[in-house]
Amino acid sequence: QVQLVESGGGLVQPGGSLRLSCAASGTTFSIWTMNWYRQAPGKQREWVARITSSGKTTNYADSVRGRFTISRDNAQNTVYLQMSSLKPEDTAMYYCNTHPPQNNWGQGTQVSVSS
C-alpha cells in the first residue's frame, strides 16, 4: 500500500504562492498517475489536478487552471503542486493520492488564504 505525506501548506495572503509536496513510499511511484485533491470546511473533497506517470500529461479543475501547476519527480518519489494567484476560496486541506485513489489517505496539508 502507498504511504503519502503531504507538506508545504501555510497561511498566505491573496495573490500569493505556495508549493505543496507529496512524498510517496511503499510503492513503485513511477507507475502511478497522481492526483491532488482538496477539502474545504463543510464541503466535500474535490479533485484539483492530475499528472500521468511519465509527467507528460496534466489536467486541472476549472477553478485552478492557469493558476496551479502539477509536476512530479519520479527519482524523488514526489509530486508537487505549485499554486499561484491564490484566492480565499482556495483555503482547504490539500491531499495527494494515486489514480484511482486508494483508501489510505495521508494527513493532508492545510492551505489558508487570508489577508
Write the layout of secondary structure elements.
Blueprint: E1 3-7, E2 10-12, E3 18-25, E4 33-39, E5 46-51, E6 58-60, E7 68-73, E8 78-83, E9 92-99, E10 109-113
Parallel strand pairs: 2-10
Antiparallel strand pairs: 1-3, 3-8, 4-5, 4-9, 5-6, 7-8, 9-10
User: What's the rounded overall pLDDT mean?
Assistant: 96
Helix content: under 10%
Q: Quick one: biggest sheet?
A: 6 strands, mixed
User: How many beta-strand runs?
Assistant: 10
Instruction: Give the termini separation.
Output: 40 Å
Q: Secondary-structure element order, as H and E? A: EEEEEEEEEE
Shape: globular
Spatial arrangement of strands, main beta sheet: 2-10-9-4-5-6
- Secondary structure category: mainly beta
Please report which band the strand proportion falls in: under 5%, 5-15%, 15-25%, 25-35%, 35-45% or over 45%. Answer: over 45%
Radius of gyration: 13 Å
Unreliable runs, pLDDT <50, ≥5 residues?
none
Number of helices: 0
Name some characteristics of this structure.
115 residues, four-stranded antiparallel sheet, globular, mainly beta
Describe the structure in your own words.
The mean pLDDT is 96. By secondary structure, this protein is mainly beta. The radius of gyration is 13 Å and the shape is globular. The chain starts with a strand and ends with a strand. The protein contains no helices and 10 strands. The strands form 2 sheets. Strands 2-10-9-4-5-6 form a 6-stranded mixed β-sheet, with no helix packed on it. A 4-stranded antiparallel β-sheet has the order 1-3-8-7, with no helix packed on it.
